[in-house]
Amino acid sequence: MTDTFVRACALAELEEDTPKRVELEGVPIALVRTEGEVFAVNDICSHANVSLSEGEVEDCQIECWLHGSSFDLRTGKPSGLPATRPVPVYPVKIEGDDVLVSVTQES
Ligand code: FES
């Protein structure tokens, strides 16, 4: 199987519960380090064209600042209205101090 992971940033660049927006192969990604793990979700809210990385992180969820839907960082599913569709989530690997994300493989 081809390895589709690409380097997103250094692990040290990610502050706990502070999302970081990166763009990988043209895909906007919100990277979040929380609860000892790193998650990658599509940065665009499924409700409107809003950057999720500008929202807050709590309980392994990222909140859209515009209308308040929160998305589970593990599954991308919204926990409440107005968003009804999940955002794509992507596999993350940590190698040394590098955070790698596979954007071609939604999980
Ligand atoms: S734009 Fe994100 S909940 Fe409305």
Automatic annotation (TrEMBL):
Keywords: 2Fe-2S, Dioxygenase, Iron, Iron-sulfur, Metal-binding, Oxidoreductase. InterPro entries: Rieske_2Fe-2S (IPR017941), Rieske_2Fe-2S_sf (IPR036922). Its EC number is 1.14.12.19. GO terms for molecular function: 3-phenylpropionate dioxygenase activity. Pfam families: Rieske. SUPFAM superfamilies: ISP domain. It is an enzyme of class 1 (oxidoreductase). The keyword Nucleus does not apply. It comes from the Bacteria. Residues 6-101 form the Rieske domain. Transmembrane segments: none annotated. This is Bifunctional 3-phenylpropionate/cinnamic acid dioxygenase ferredoxin subunit.
